[in-house]
Design brief:
The complex is a heterodimer of chains A (about 110) and B (about 120). Chain A contains no helices and 9 strands. Classes of the chains: A mainly beta (about 110), B mainly beta (about 120).
Chain lengths: ~110, ~120
């Protein structure tokens, strides 16, 4: 159960768009349409932002979108805002009732 | 609204045991599977275990298999994590989280509790 690979950090200016990648294998990301993305502000619990690759839960801004190509999933945040500064984690089903998270990406809004 | 409240964390010596609880409210607990996820200080999230809505399907991460036991009491709307043979590397905030979909469908966590800190140290 190796962790999914995410960039350690990304940054962008307010109003810009950024994309965070999440690379797995054909046993997890590439084999299931069950990638989710979480936002975590310091000292708080994670919040679900995207599920099943591209579905936004009710209440999540449409500035957040998800996609997948092969073994790599991506989270795109458009129109960056200061409150988007947080850690972001991807998560994928890995078969046999197991799940795996990514190493996390720290987003800095410049 | 969905509410998950973990308890039972604390400081424990290596090799000892601890039981975490997660009290659920705001949804029909007996219809949803549940996850435990942990996060070591300053580190990434790590999936720990999952239990189906009726307790019939359970699975663990390799790092805790044979030492941790997930269980639930649907009559009390409570999820548990029994942790035995604790190691320093088990030190983390432990979160319980509700599965996004009801029934037996595989689904990621959606709502999370605030977490409880477990520190394993002599």
């Amino acid at each position: 159960q190796s962790a999914l690979t995410q960039p350690a950090s990304v940054s962008g200016s307010p109003g810009q768009s950024i994309t965070i990648s999440c690379t797995g294998t054909s046993s997890d990301v590439g084999n299931y349409n069950l990638v989710s993305w979480y936002q975590q502000h310091p000292g708080t619990a994670p919040k679900l932002m995207i599920s099943e690759g591209s579905k936004r839960p009710s209440g999540v801004s449409n500035r957040f979108s998800g996609s997948k190509s092969g073994n790599t999933a991506s989270l795109t945040i458009s129109g960056l805002q200061a409150e988007d500064e947080a850690d972001y984690y991807c998560c994928s089903y890995a078969g046999s009732l197991t799940w795996v998270f990514g190493g996390g990406t720290k987003l800095t809004v410049l | 609204q969905v509410q998950l409240v973990e308890s039972g964390g604390g400081v424990v010596q290596p090799g000892r045991s601890l039981r975490l609880s997660c009290a659920a409210s705001g949804f029909t607990f007996s219809l949803y599977g549940m996850h435990w996820v942990r996060q070591a200080p300053g580190k990434e999230l790590q999936w720990v275990a999952v239990i189906s809505y009726d307790g019939s399907n359970i699975h663990y991460a390799e790092s805790v298999k044979g030492r941790f036991t997930i269980s639930r009491d649907n009559s009390k709307n409570t999820l548990y994590l029994q942790m035995n043979s604790l190691r320093p590397e088990d030190t983390a905030v432990y979160y319980c989280a509700k599965k996004k979909e009801e029934g037996g469908v595989e689904a990621p966590p959606d709502y999370w509790g605030q977490g409880t800190l477990v520190t394993v140290s002599s």
